[in-house]
Amino acid sequence: VDSAILSVPTMDTTSHNFTWEIDTLGDGNSSLLRDVCIINDTCVYAVGEIYTKDTLGQWNAQPYNFLKWNGIKWEMKSITYVAVSAVFAFSENDIWAGTSAPYHWNGSNWKSYNVTGIFNGYINKIWGTSSSNVYIVGTNGSIAHYNGTSWQKIESGTTTSLLDVYGTPDGSIVWACGWEDFKPTVLLKIT
């Protein structure tokens, strides 16, 4: 069977006119960012560890670990004494951050949760549908869920570091994935 030739116009490969703006944060000394969360063009959060020097040119012992973009500049803060590895926000007044423990910003202060025995590792990623349905994943195959009142351990069946977590808008299905040297790559479905 013969068919007619169809001509289909496509966009030019150069039609994506992007201009990247680069912000240099910190003064070096192994500064790094580990995660970013965007609320809108004037509210972006980034986490990691940013080292700066004091007015005498000496390194500050305490790095900044939580940054907020207000549409014009970055504001650097520290919410704990260690590097922050994950951030997820539902709004400007409902933010989750992670180290070896989860932290929650409620609009006026940060609350730290003790997940010892529930979460055995360092948090790599946070996802949820609300602050009453939050998942954290991390090293050693660790997964935990927060229902708005308490944290519950979820057995992953692996010791491979979990690097990401994401789910459906209603939270009925959640996926986690990870990899680690000399361990299997894993993709987990939490239902």
Description of the structure:
This protein is mostly beta strands. Helices cover 0% and strands 43% of the residues. The protein is built from no helices and 15 strands. The strands form 4 sheets. It has a 4-stranded antiparallel β-sheet with strand order 1-2-3-4, with no helix packed on it. Strands 5-6-7-8 form a 4-stranded antiparallel β-sheet, with no helix packed on it. Strands 9-10-11-12 form a 4-stranded antiparallel β-sheet, with no helix packed on it.
Q: Main traits of this protein?
A:
191 residues, four-stranded antiparallel beta sheet, globular, mainly beta
Spatial sequence of strands, sheet with the most strands: 1-2-3-4
Roughly what percent helix? under 10%
How would a textbook summarize the main sheet? Answer: 4 strands, antiparallel
Average pLDDT number: 92
Structural class: mainly beta
Spell the H/E element sequence. Answer: EEEEEEEEEEEEEEE
Radius of gyration: 20 Å
Low-confidence stretches: none
Give the arrangement of secondary structure elements:
Elements: E1 32-40, E2 43-50, E3 64-69, E4 74-77, E5 86-91, E6 94-98, E7 102-105, E8 110-112, E9 123-130, E10 133-138, E11 143-146, E12 151-154, E13 162-167, E14 174-178, E15 186-190
Antiparallel strand pairs: 1-2, 2-3, 3-4, 5-6, 6-7, 7-8, 9-10, 10-11, 11-12, 13-14, 14-15
Can you describe this structure in just a few lines?
This protein has 191 residues and is an all-beta fold.
